[in-house]
Design brief:
By secondary structure, the protein is an alpha+beta fold. Helices cover 30% and strands 23% of the residues. It contains 16 helices and 26 strands. A six-stranded mixed β-sheet has the order 16-23-15-22-20-21, sandwiched between helices. A four-stranded mixed β-sheet has the order 1-12-11-10. The chain has a four-stranded antiparallel β-sheet with strand order 4-5-7-6. The longest helix is centred in the first third of the chain and has 21 residues. The radius of gyration is 24 Å and the shape is globular.
Length: 533
């Protein structure tokens, strides 16, 4: 074995040992206990919780959801009460009057009331540039304290997704005003005092976090005393911990926690419970319309036919996801639009490339004006699943004379590249329920997102952004439906997305852990419903 490879193996082994030691082997901290009933759920994740300020975006959403609550919440049945027991909407759709739950306190003892809601909303609006991707923030005209437990939100226009966006994990969750810094939250907070079912009691950066049950919680308290969020560097380390009985739960949607081969293996062994949610989000590849090669619409169209999606679904995702013919599934609100289906057809892909001037060379690759057809796809290196999908795509594209380079980057570098637009191809995952389609499409207008950067080379990009802005405040349902149809049709025709599949949230857990379910949002983990038997 070469010295470099040996060092890498030893480094991974040492990292795994250190991470496993962080889990602990006591009867109260993991799946390896022989106790009849445990009082702590151990959840393994490749990512630290980081800063869970609910008004910012640096922390893990699953952790923010445990500590902070909103006025309303999204459920399988639709929008339901949370910190607001009820509400009324004015006839013109501009005023929402919320009747707040009485007797609720933040975990630092501060009372939750209309004044606390106003302070939170004002803090969010004061950072409007950061939240500009979400039109809800742009539409806030005024926050009014009607009385101690009545709060009124006044909007500039009737905004149809108001309740849905108020229910999101961020930025509309409530944090104690005592935690504000200089009356604001945009520059950080002094503590994490929310009203939710959990309290963050301990956090050792990049190692673990412990969330204890909020003993004064206004609602139904969690059945298990605490949750230990253990940070592990990669999926293999997590699997080792699970098999050692030191982890109770793996949970996630995008492949960071566990790849599908491992999921299927665990499922077939029968030692653990494995489960999947219904399809919740769209997995796609961005084709940058602002780059030299992929800027040609005919080239983008050719690439649509070059990728064998079914082979990816079968070979990488083990048949657990459904092939996507369009960016948004027809089951998503406003997205039941009849669009051309582009199935795998390498011969058609080749003809389109010929028409675009890319001729096959003697070396098996295409050339135009002396330049080789050479493009690069970037992916988050923490996500091995994306790396494998890239390899499948590389083989498909080579078959039609296209050279695809594959570059895995650390997550932050990957995100920075989305903002800069310095990519030919890049992975894209829609945000799923309840963000799709309104919040997801709203983000297309913001340069910080890869979608914007990929679309900026389109002829009608300005029209796309304006249409998104207008449809959010269009009160007529029929007109709004037609606007969505026009928008989705144009995006489909521009070929800036190669839809791959519709993703699902996956869960693997010990048989002793019960009550593991899925929330509508893939970014929430309902720990409060779980218990040991």
């Amino acid at each position: 074995m070469k010295l470099k490879k040996l060092k890498k193996v030893l480094a991974i082994s040492l990292s795994a040992m250190l991470c496993l030691s962080a889990v602990g082997c006591s009867s109260k901290s993991g799946g390896g206990s022989t106790d009849a009933k445990k009082d702590q759920i151990v959840y393994a994740c490749t990512k630290d919780i980081r800063d869970i300020n609910p008004h910012l975006y640096g922390g893990e959403m699953s952790a923010q959801n445990m500590v902070f609550e909103s006025l309303v919440k999204e459920t399988d049945k639709g929008i339901e009460p949370c910190l607001a027991e009820s509400w009324e909407i004015s006839e013109d759709g501009k005023e929402y009057t919320f009747h707040l739950r009485e007797g609720v306190k933040f975990t630092d003892g501060e009372p939750f009331n209309a004044e606390a809601v106003k302070l939170n909303m004002d803090a969010i609006v004061s950072n409007i540039e950061r939240h500009a991707w979400l039109d809800m923030v742009n539409e806030i005209e005024e926050s009014v304290v009607v009385d101690e437990y009545t709060y009124k939100l006044v909007l500039k226009h009737p905004y149809y997704p108001t309740l849905t966006e108020l229910a999101l994990v961020r930025p509309f969750r409530m944090i104690s005003p005592k935690c504000f810094v200089d009356g604001e939250t945009k520059n950080g907070v002094s503590a994490y005092a929310g009203t939710g079912p959990y309290v963050l009691s301990e956090h050792k950066e990049n190692e673990y976090a412990i969330f204890d049950t909020n003993e004064d919680y206004w609602g139904e308290k969690p059945k298990v005393k605490s949750v230990k969020w253990v940070v592990m560097p990669d999926a293999q380390t997590i699997l080792m911990a699970l098999e050692k009985g030191e982890v109770d739960l793996l949970y996630g949607a995008d492949g960071d926690q566990i790849d599908m081969d491992s999921y299927k293996k665990l499922e077939s062994e029968g030692k653990y419970v494995t489960d999947m949610s219904d399809p919740i989000a769209s997995r796609a590849i961005l084709l940058n319309a602002h780059q030299p090669i992929t800027g040609d619409k005919k080239v983008r169209e050719a690439l649509q036919y070059a990728i064998n999606k079914q082979a990816i679904v079968d070979g990488v995702l083990n048949g657990t996801e459904e092939v996507a013919d369009t960016l948004m599934a027809k089951s998503v609100p406003y997205c039941d639009v009849d669009l051309e289906v582009r199935s795998y057809d390498p011969e058609k892909a080749g003809k389109l490339l010929d028409e675009a001037g890319w001729k096959m060379g003697d070396d098996g690759f295409r050339y135009k004006d002396g330049k080789k057809f050479d493009v690069t796809i970037y992916y988050n290196s923490d996500n091995s699943q994306e790396g494998t999908i890239s390899e499948y795509m590389q083989a498909d594209l080579k078959a039609i004379g296209v050279n695809l380079n594959i570059v895995g980057e650390e997550k932050q570098s990957f995100l920075d590249r989305q903002k800069s637009g310095e990519f030919d191809l890049q992975y894209s995952l829609s945000w799923g329920t309840p963000y799709d389609p309104q919040s997801y499409l709203s983000s297309w207008r913001i340069p910080a997102h890869g979608d914007y950067q990929a679309q900026v080379g389109m002829e009608k990009k300005e029209w796309v952004d304006k249409t998104i802005t207008d449809l959010m405040i269009e009160p007529d349902e029929d007109k709004r439906t037609e606007m969505y149809k026009e928008l989705l049709t144009y995006i489909h025709e521009e070929c800036v997305y190669i839809p791959i599949s519709y993703s699902r949230t996956k869960a693997v857990h010990t048989k002793e852990l019960k009550g593991v379910t899925f929330n509508p949002s893939q970014y929430e983990i309902p720990f409060e419903k779980m218990y040991f038997e």
